[in-house]
Amino acid sequence: MNSFTEALEELQDNLSTDDGSKPLEAEEKVPTNPSNRNDDDGEGDTDQTPLSEKVYASKSKKSGDTDLSKVGTMDNSEIAQNVQIVMKVLDGNIQRSIAKRGTYPGGLPRRYKRMNSFYEIEDVDPMDATIWTKNLSPQLPRVHQREKETMGGEIAILRDISTSMMGVYSEWSSSVVKAVVELARVKRMRVGYIEFNHKSFKTIVEEKFFTKDYETILESSTKTECSGNTNYEEALKDAISDFRGRGLRNKHILFITDGIPTSGDTEVRKERERAKKLGICIHSIFIGSKNFPLILNSISKETYGSQFVAYRAQNGNIKIERKESSIAFHRPVNDRPTEDILNFI
Question: Same structural domain for residues 243 and 200?
Fold first, then answer.
């Protein structure tokens, strides 16, 4: 009897999961509902929440853990090794926008303009002032127009958290968000962050959407829970509405998704028009190897944004490349080396 018990214990010790690891103890398992409670509320009623609105835990307990069943042995830093390609292109777009100059009373004299009021008398051109005093007329003399380069600006990051993003896609998109926030920190840009599925969830800091509280945005981006379906309209509407009244400032949206919109206005017509009027560049990253949403092509093309495609390479890594301007989309047959990918820039 003792030998049978010992054999049974040895068999149990040797049991492993498909990936070679031992089964989790009961207290270590990741619950399918975040509260870790049974659907029965104790009063005999079960949870009747629609499936599309339920939240399920991702395959990782926290951002940075690796889903070995999907990516082999690569850690999160390796999975996002080509995020710098997005950063390089975004940096170029942002830098070009920053180069725009705007009128500013304390700026450097860049050109001449006609005086609008005598408050500008200190910048008057001496020769013009002399001529004007001898021949008074309603047309005032010229003054220096002071300008300065537009610095800062805003970037809104829209991250898809629908059910299809669960697992490594959610982990990887979290890494992209972190990299973009760090770029914004260097450029002194305000950042807005939205997670969306069939609804839009804005991160608000001190009653404001755009903020320089980068740590709060970074903390929000570590969440990897996913649920629901995909609605482009709500997320874009929320983001674009906060750009209003910001003049000719540096304005960008980074839109990260892995699927086509399945609810709301799938063509986002109003949002595209508003983005064009406000001068917002919408950059998109599509994660996947097929079913590229043609609407992403229209959104980025109309707003002069950049397009990227992220796919899982043969070694399990997720890589990014610039999407060609044509609508046709094909997954690369062979894994392209980093040198070739950089040639797209």
Answer: yes
Q: Would you state the pLDDT for residue 93?
A: 61
Taking residues 217-227, report their average pLDDT. 91
User: Is-contact 78 337, C-beta < 8 A?
Assistant: no
Query: Do residues 230 and 160 make contact, with C-beta atoms less than 8 angstroms apart?
Result: yes
How much is the pTM? 0.59
**4 domain-assigned:** no
Residue range(s) defining the domain that contains residue 133: 101-149
Q: Tell me what pLDDT residue 53 has.
A: 42
Average pLDDT over residues 274-301: 88
* 216 lies in the same domain as 279: yes
Q: Examine residue 60 and state whether it is found in any structural domain, yes or no.
A: no
Beta strand 251-257 with 281-287 is parallel
Provide the CATH number for the domain around residue 235. 3.40.50.410
Confirm if 112 and 143 have CB atoms less than 8 A apart. Answer: yes
CB 128 within 8 A of CB 142: yes
For residues 96 and 53, give the distance between their C-alpha atoms in angstroms, rounded to a whole number: 41
